[in-house]
């Protein structure tokens, strides 16, 4: 049962592929952004699971404890979460603009309208 | 899982709610993996601000997704499965979950966990790494947020101005929702 220790990566891969599928197969722009978020969260889980240490605790100093999880990935992911929200806000703003211009947030309808001009 | 439900549900309002639940689940997963600071941020940002942003967008656009032909979905599934298979094959060489010998735990981590309390004087190591060892990163993050806020204002603001100029002068510029609150 050696390979069972890798299950955290498989969770990440499954989530990542769900997000990937949404991004490439769904026509709705808002849903694509949700897919990007799922993809992003899978990367977060990947980093945090790398930081986990057997027998370690959360990286806040407590008297008498010497084993902590690695704080560096936590910091990177804190930054990434905030950047991700900024990206989401930007993407949703673009969706709002697309809706103002085309009256639709479905990819195929937008392509149709583009073809007419 | 919740993520699969998001694929299937066509009502975008329900999708938004599911995104919130998904964020909350991710946050509790982070707590399980000893990343309390990340969990706090994810809960506040993912389940809070993200929902506000998405609801604002749905209010400005539409909350119904239309049905599509299933033509290209098969191709997409094939691509997804091939990519996923490749990734899983790649994980076979990775260090195991919680393995103390993993490269991530042997290089910088001991320094951060053993010495940062003496060097910086803050018991929370995540804070000292964030604000001190990697302070430039955090500055960059602030720049990104600023750039995103400016971008959102430009994208949404110019539309309101143009509409006012073109159509009728008394049309109110639409409120920009919660978008700039990043």
Automatic annotation (TrEMBL), chain A:
Keywords: Cell membrane, Membrane, Transmembrane, Transmembrane helix. Pfam families: Oxidored_q2. InterPro entries: CPA3_antiporter_subunitC, NUOK/Mnh_C1-like. It is found in: Cell membrane. The chain crosses the membrane at residues 6-24, 33-51, 71-96. It is a multi-pass membrane protein. One of its GO terms (cellular component) is plasma membrane. Belongs to the CPA3 antiporters (TC 2.A.63) subunit C family. This is Cation:proton antiporter subunit C. It comes from Natronospira elongata.
From TrEMBL, chain B:
One of its GO terms (cellular component) is plasma membrane. Keywords: Cell membrane, Membrane, Transmembrane, Transmembrane helix, Transport. Residues 166-182 have a biased composition (Basic and acidic residues). InterPro entries: CPA3_Na-H_Antiporter_A (IPR050616), MrpA_C/MbhD (IPR025383), MrpA_C/MbhE (IPR046806). Its main location: membrane. It is found in: Cell membrane. It comes from the Bacteria. Residues 163-182 are annotated as: Disordered. It is a multi-pass membrane protein. Pfam families: MbhD, MbhE. Residues 103-156 form the MrpA C-terminal/MbhE domain. Residues 2-61 form the MrpA C-terminal/MbhD domain. This is DUF4040 domain-containing protein. It comes from Natronospira elongata.
């Amino acid at each position: 049962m050696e390979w069972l220790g890798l299950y955290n990566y498989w969770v990440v891969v499954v989530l990542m592929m769900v997000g990937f599928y949404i991004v490439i197969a769904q026509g709705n722009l808002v849903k694509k952004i949700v897919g990007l978020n799922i993809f992003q969260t899978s990367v977060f889980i990947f980093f945090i699971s790398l930081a986990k240490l057997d027998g370690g605790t959360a990286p806040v100093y407590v008297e008498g404890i010497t084993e902590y999880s690695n704080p560096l990935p936590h910091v990177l992911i804190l930054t990434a979460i905030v950047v991700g929200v900024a990206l989401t806000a930007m993407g949703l703003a673009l969706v709002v603009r697309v809706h103002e211009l085309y009256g639709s947030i479905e990819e195929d309808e937008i392509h149709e309208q583009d073809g007419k001009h | 899982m919740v993520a699969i439900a998001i694929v299937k549900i066509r009502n975008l309002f329900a999708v938004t709610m599911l995104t919130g639940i998904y964020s909350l689940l991710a946050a509790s997963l982070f707590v399980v993996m000893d990343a309390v600071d990340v969990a706090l941020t994810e809960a506040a940002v993912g389940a809070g601000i993200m929902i506000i942003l998405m609801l604002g967008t749905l209010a400005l656009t539409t909350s119904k997704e239309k049905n599509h032909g299933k033509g290209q979905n098969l191709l997409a599934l094939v691509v997804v499965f091939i990519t996923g298979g490749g990734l899983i094959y790649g994980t076979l060489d990775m260090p195991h979950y919680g393995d103390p010998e993993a490269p991530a735990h042997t290089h910088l981590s001991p320094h951060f966990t053993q010495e940062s309390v003496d060097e910086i004087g803050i018991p929370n190591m995540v804070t000292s790494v964030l604000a001190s060892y990697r302070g430039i990163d955090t500055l960059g993050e602030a720049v990104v947020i600023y750039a995103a806020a400016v971008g959102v204002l430009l994208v949404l603001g110019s539309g309101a101005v143009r509409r006012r100029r073109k159509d009728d002068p008394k049309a109110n510029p639409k409120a920009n929702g919660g978008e700039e609150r990043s």
